[in-house]
Structure formats: structure tokens, C-alpha cells
Amino acid sequence: KIATPTPSPYNPLPSPTSIQILILEPNSSPDEEIACHLAPIDLDADHALFSSPRPLECPVKFYGSVIAGRRKVFQISSDLCILEDDDDFDLLTDSLRLHPFQRYTALSYVWGDPADPCHVLLNGGGVDGTTTRFPVTRNLHQALWSLRRLGEGIRLWVDALCINQADYEEKRVQIALMRRVYRQAEEVVAFVPLTAEDSDNVTELVPSIWDSRALFFETRDRREGGEREVVQEAGDARGSEVSLTSWGFPEASEPVERVVWEKDDAAADSKAMGFKYAFGDKNKNDSTLHLEGYGLPPAESPLWVSWRRFFSSPYFWRIWILQEFTMAKTLTFNLGHGTMITSEGVMGACAAIKKYSGAKNAEYMRHDADGVASDEGRLAFTGLQLAWSMFAERLSVEAGLPQKGLATMLHTGRHFLATDPRDKVYAMLGLAEDGGLFAEAVEYEPEETHVKTFIRFARLLVEQGHGFQVLLQAGIGGSQARDEGLPSWVPVSSCLQMDGAGHQSAGKVKLISSEQNWIDPVPRTNPASLTTTNDIPNIQTSSIGFLDNDKLLLRGTVTTR
């Protein structure tokens, strides 16, 4: 944790729906110190939420930091509103003021190691505000450096700077707004820094995959014996197949037509031929049913090495990134060195390989140029899987599908990492449909351990009627994975495992009888060993409650069908 310097640059926020926005000053030279300013805006005043016209957008003059005895003056695009209700508005004579909501870009990034910080100039607001040399991690410093513009300021939301990390009450209130912060941002920029060579390679590989896909479809459409079907748009509530457009492919507004081959078995049987072509067998006659035959870079290309390094980034592993990625209306990857690429372009390229490549994503991720499994490849493939899960959550939000409750979202975030174990719960609140019910339970005080957090939220879930789900998620991983002081009925967030049907893996739950005496633990069957759904144990509860803070009382029956 990086300590907030004294005097603090932070001022109290004016309303419960207010957030701080960071105004990043332009740079006159690359080595100029990063300078920024805090300014409050109100999320409830977002003009995009109302049917009335947007405020007047125009550049305004901003008086920035004093450097070498001279105050920097620059322009920043701003939303202005008219003070007087005048249909004959005159820009030269009528008074204007800043709109209470200003459009901004939200930064999504990995904090990095706080042990060796860099510093930025941070002004608490106004010409006479307090300016402090504020410590930030090196990764954030690099991100701000890459986002600076020449001659023009920009508005950003950056959690490490826009939330007073020393004010635990402010952190609690701001966490409840995180979903809105990223949803109402004009754009989310995901900072995934690579070397200059790797960033160039990634931005070369992605369009190359798309070009291969275009040639693949052009050839496939000319094949004889194909008939066409219309694929339903993404988000169809009837459960139809998700269209190509939902994975970032360019056919945006019209239903997608695709060729359905008469001999589907032949396409399936050709998978092995595509694999051979990708890893050494260059017989193109065997690969015409896959992208490998249409200009997809060969597996030994250095482009795939950079691709693996991209997905090996810790960015895809962090628990807070799941919310930031999911809620973004538009997300762009910033690879450093002035290189940007859209998330739709990246995930669309992955989808093309997944659907139409003979070797699939796993092989291009896991193998080096000789086709041998590598540690970096395994890490990259896991990163890709986590990216897929984030993208799937984002598609669900975009399609307007019902969101999952907190009890279920705790399972969704089980594979993601958190420096603070409490964030395994807190980071899920903004994604959960019922997250607002738990906002008051967020506590960041030092004495609030993650064990206390897990117990408190498990208890709240039981009280909200999710006791059965809590029991299903409890005890997984055994005593070795359970922290001291954590009751057996409280889920261990880092060890949750659940199959596709929503059933837990093997474990035991301790039950208390109505006489308050411990009874024998009730074993639960591992669903992987079940042959039919009728074999799954059925737990019928008449009531779940508490005897005290750490003993759960369950009345009911456990039967096996």
C-alpha cells in the first residue's frame, strides 16, 4: 500500500453520487513530470441518461501547474451549460458554466508493486489548490505517461488517484459506484504494456487473422452444395446460437449469413489435417477447410510469440479487471509506445481461430515454434481463458440478459487473483444483480480481516435467502485451504469449484440439530462421478438460521434420489 502524503490533496465529495475525475496535463516534452488535477463530477447528472440535448461541447482554457516559475495554460474539451434559460442564446454574451457531469475515460490497469513508487504532481482542485508530489506505482506512472497528449488535457478516472485510499468511508461509498464509473465512461482504456516489438507484432497479427478469415469465408461461400441459414443476433432470449457479430466481427447491423456444409462430418474430420499444417505439414491441399490455408501466419512466426506474451500479462488475472472489462461500453487495449487495438478486434481474432482454425487457440498458445508445450504458453492459454470469461460477462451485459446474484458471482471470480483477499468479495458487488444490498457491509479498516469479511458476507447471504447456495460452496478444498477462524459453513472464495450444472464438488457440511448438538457430517457426492441427474443428492431445508456468530443451524432433510 502507498501512503497518502501530507498535506492531503483530497477534498470531501459534494454528494453520494460524486466521483473525482483526474485532469491529466499535456506534456511539452517526453521527460516533463506528470501533472494532474482532481475535479468532482456527479454521475447522476450524466447527460447521456436524459432525453434532453447534450450540453455545449467546446474547448476551455485550463490553468495548470506552475513549472519553472510559469503556470502552464492548456485547453481541454469540456461540456458547458447555459446559466439562463434563453432560446436566443449568444455564445459571446451569455454566461456559461461547467456541466456537473464531464465525459471521461476510465483507466483499467494492474496496480503493480507499491514498494518502489514513482511520483506525479497532484493538485486537489482550483488554482490555489494543494499540489503534492504523490506516489504511484511504476505501472500506473507508465500508463499515465502513455496517455498524455501534446497541447491538450484529458479527463481520466484512475482508482488509485481518484479515490482517497486513506479514507475508508470514501472507499466504501466509491466501491458501490464502481459499476457506474466504468459503465458511464465514454471509453475504457486497458493498459497492457508490451515491448515495442511485441506491440507491433500483436497489431500486425490481429488484422492478419481477420484477413485470413475474410479469404476463408470468400472461398467457402463459393463452394458448391452449400445452403444458407440466418444466424440470430446475439442476446436472443430464445437461446439461439450467438452470431459472429457478438464476437467482434464486422458484420454489425444485418443478420449474418453463413454457409452450412452438407457434409458436416467431413469438416470435423479435417481438424487433424489443419493441425498438421499449422505445425509442420505444409500440404495446403489438406488445410483448405481451415484458416491455416488462407494466409494465417505459421506457428513458428514470432507474431505468435508476442501473442502469447500479450495474454500472459497479469492484467487478465486480476479480480477488479473482471468488473472493469465487463462494464465497459467501449474498451481499447493500450500496448504502450502509442499502440492501441480494440478489444473487439482482439477477441474477434480469438473467436476466428476458435471456430475456423484447425489447430485452435490452445495449440497456438501452448506451443513454441517446434510444437513443444511451454510454460509461457500455458500461462498465456490460462490468460486467454480468463479473457474469454470476461468477454462473455460483457456480452451478457450488452445483451441485457438477467445478471447473476452475488452468491453466483463469487463462483465466477474464483480463478481471478486479488492482493487483498477481501477484494474477492468486494470486486463482485458491482457485477452482482443484488450487489447494492451488500454495499453497506464493505469495510476496509485495517482490523477488518478477510476472515471477518468472508463470515459477514456469508451470513448476509444466508439472511438474504441464499443459505442453500452458501452451504453448497462451503468446505471446498478441505482444512488446508481454510483460514484459522473461518467456520466450516463459510465458502473459501479462492477455492470455490462448481461444475456446469451448478453443483459443488465433494465436501462436507457440519450441521447442528435442533438440540444444538453436533451430528455426523453429511458427505456430498462428487458430481463428476454421477451418471444421471437423478443421482444428485437432494437437500430440502425447512429453515436455516444462526445459533450465534459462528454456528449455523439447519433444519431439514438430506435424501438421495
From TrEMBL:
Residues 104-324 form the Heterokaryon incompatibility domain. InterPro entries: HET, HetReg/Transcr_Mod. Pfam families: HET. Transmembrane segments: none annotated. This is Heterokaryon incompatibility protein-domain-containing protein. It comes from Podospora appendiculata.
